[in-house]
Amino acid sequence: MSRVVLITxxxxxxxxxxxxxxxNSLYSVVVNGTNQQLIDEVVEQISANGNRAIGYCADIAxxxxxxxxxxxxxxxxxxxxxxxxxxGNLRDEKCMRMTTAQWQDVIDVHLHxxxxxxxxxxxxxxxxxxxxxxxxxxxxxxxxKGQLNYSAxxxxxxxxxxxxxxxxxxxxxxxxxxxxAALTDMTKPVIDFITKKYAQRNEPFPDYWKVGKPEDVALxxxxxxxxxxxxxxxxIFGVNGATVTKWTRPQRSFxxxxxxxxxxxxxKQKGSV
Length: 273
Fold this sequence. Notes:
Elements: E1 4-8, H1 13-24, E2 28-33, H2 36-48, E3 53-57, H3 63-77, E4 82-85, H4 100-125, E5 130-135, H5 138-142, H6 148-168, E6 173-181, H7 188-201, H8 214-226, E7 236-240, E8 243-247, H9 259-272
Parallel strand pairs: 1-2, 1-4, 2-3, 4-5, 5-6, 6-7
Antiparallel strand pairs: 7-8
């Protein structure tokens, strides 16, 4: 039987493009989302191309709903080989104005949703191996003003990736994270705002915000999954158009034997920058 991939948030943007790409690569695809009509549209498109897909409507922020979804997948396919945690949301606001609900909504989907999906899928991967791909962001790698909730959630994904890669390597389960830069429903409002702001300033559009397409990320995901290297785990990949970047883990910068010596070295290094 073909490999089975479960993709959360697969009805739009990167998730949809990845579902279609992997289906064309002969994966059996499980399309997850929270809008049944959009789920059906993706499943129908994949089926029209002669490939196999099923849909399941579930909010991954609900652990019980995730458990039911995994049971359904096992009933339909009898196996799961790849989990791609792509579902996401935004509730952007500066910290001083951010509400508890705005904080919780983002943490629930990105971070708690990742944990629920991983914990429910793992029992079905331990005996056969497989891949887990988690979506992070430069907001988690570098921080992003106005996105404390999103930055915290995506930084949490980094810790999950590094920890799970070590825990699951003996079971031939690879765990990697992707930081995509692509024009999607989530990023379009931000990019439109940036475009307008720089046009008003009569300044050139920043290279940082020149992003690729969801299909570019889907191509990378398909290529990554096709690699046979068991040691290809615990990595963070940036994908922007055809450009792929490997991010490294934080490393110690310098140490000193006392606070006084430390801040003396800190001031000297600061002055040299």
